[in-house]
Specification:
Two copies of one chain form a homodimer. Chain A is of the alpha/beta class. Chain A has 13 helices and twelve strands. In chain A, a hairpin with a 6-residue loop joins β10 and β11. The longest helix of chain A is centred in the middle third of the chain and has 24 residues. Chain A is globular and about 65 Å long. The interface between A and B is large, with 137 and 137 residues.
Amino acid sequence: MNGGLPEPVLIVGCGLIGTSVALALREQAIEVFLDDARPANVEVAVSRGAGKPGPVDNPGLVVVAVPPSSVADAVAAALSAWPDAIVTDVASVKDNLGRRIAPHPGASRYVGSHPMAGSERSGPMAASGRLFEGRAWAITADENSDPRAVAAVRELATLAGAVVVDMDAGTHDEAVALVSHLPHLLSVLAAAQLNGAPAEHLALAGPGLRDVTRIAGSDTGLWLEILTGNATKVRALLENVREDLDSLIAGLDDDTNSLAGVLRRGREGTRLVPGRHGAKDVEMATVFVQIPDQPGELSRLWAHTGESGINIEDIRIDHELGRPVGLVEVAVVAHNAEALVDALTDRGWSAYR
Amino acid sequence: MNGGLPEPVLIVGCGLIGTSVALALREQAIEVFLDDARPANVEVAVSRGAGKPGPVDNPGLVVVAVPPSSVADAVAAALSAWPDAIVTDVASVKDNLGRRIAPHPGASRYVGSHPMAGSERSGPMAASGRLFEGRAWAITADENSDPRAVAAVRELATLAGAVVVDMDAGTHDEAVALVSHLPHLLSVLAAAQLNGAPAEHLALAGPGLRDVTRIAGSDTGLWLEILTGNATKVRALLENVREDLDSLIAGLDDDTNSLAGVLRRGREGTRLVPGRHGAKDVEMATVFVQIPDQPGELSRLWAHTGESGINIEDIRIDHELGRPVGLVEVAVVAHNAEALVDALTDRGWSAYR
């Protein structure tokens, strides 16, 4: 027993997310049992210290972390098998799932949840007890939820280091359609057009293309289940995108106002993206530093930025095209940029804004 | 005179790119004169050490760096005003421009060029002599180009630290439509949908949304000119995107094969994005390190990564939602990941893969 978490915890599904939850709980000395339709997954998770092989007779909390299409059945099975257990899941789409579970006599013991974390890798080997550190973890209780169950799932998220965000299932699905599913599909659309392009075209690519297409590299099968599970909300957004896309095409033909309108709305939209530290009103600036691409140089640079006493908000290293010299982009709060440039220049670096 | 660069160089247009070219040349002790329709821009550029106020009687090389819609006229004016000068420009679209300049009697002295660099900021204050360091610089000579002019523009790009990529103007425009203009528009489409979203929806946003929407924050007026200047090629790509978008929408309705097909093509497309060091075949891995969000901690971490002797390929700092602890993602060549985790763990860090 740790805070309000009912033990032991049974993890059903030892993939990336399930095993990561287990590892996070083990770091808090919670008793964890592991189950998976594939015994090999349990073996790997156990070998990584994620818990003991399950199932167990009388779990206090069951965390269902199976692929999206199997979640409803697995939650119902858990509610039936363990009539005293609290049950949650970690699936990316919540509303339909809740409806499917609602008729179950034990439905009040179920509270849906969704940690906003993932990886381009999958499986228990890619798991980490720190995966949820600082990330949002949505909890989608409703008026039928047992308060004891809600408290237990909130405790689970908190123990994993996540930030609890309470919302109803419908709002959750609308939110993830906008901030996760739609950006994923637009990233996919950008990346899909690259197939068949001559290598010389790609030689002109810069960091912009890399950023836009990064998330399109994720697991196709998982995303197919996520998107079809949230089809109504994703489709509504895609239809808005199709309208905007038509405006862009019309704008290229002759109606430049409609093109300008979409560009402007896009620029305004970027201001709504949560920034560093949740402080979206703080103006940031980038300081560029030239750096030889070899061990030790980053270390020297980092030591010197540390000596400057200026807090670094983000860093990006850009050394493309096989050049021996890279460019490090250091993001700082705007009013610190000049001081950082001076501090680094004094220490012999080529730094500039 | 430096290598093959004909001096003095006259920069026409002292915005971000023009002033950055001037600063890069001044670092090589090239004689540079600066001209701009707005005298204030020249003043700022001169005060930053970018050269002397121009124009000049007899420039060896004229670099036209005015907004896209004025480039053709400015190039023609330069060819007429200085009958011995070599003239180039830095505009993002090349084919129509070349056609408009071709009838000029001095057209063989003109060679188009396009440095693949920019910033979300603009104007001479944002300029930097290192802006082009390691970036591609396309040079779009044709069969009528004077070889002396081609050599001079190649020398210009090289002196600025860029990597010369020779291609014809049509190929260039097709390439930038794919690797720059289209990703920009898809980023805009993702960001545009955020307008009007409730703050609680945005609370679930993670690094994926930030990456996809970053470049949509750039200057709207400049992008309007770039996109209308490359309308034919961008439109062709947008029409492909519209087809794929329709497949996605159909896939959400019932034809999951068409949805899966686009997801797969997107994932395959990400493999074509040039990676670090142009070495796209090297498998990378990410090591996560937990770090208190205060000055000095990054410095310590960087010092310790330096001691490990392992070369760091990229770093990303992720500390969202107002948490005092951040997560640093350190990218290394995959076979070094375990060693880096060990080295950092030995030194007291919470590091994991």
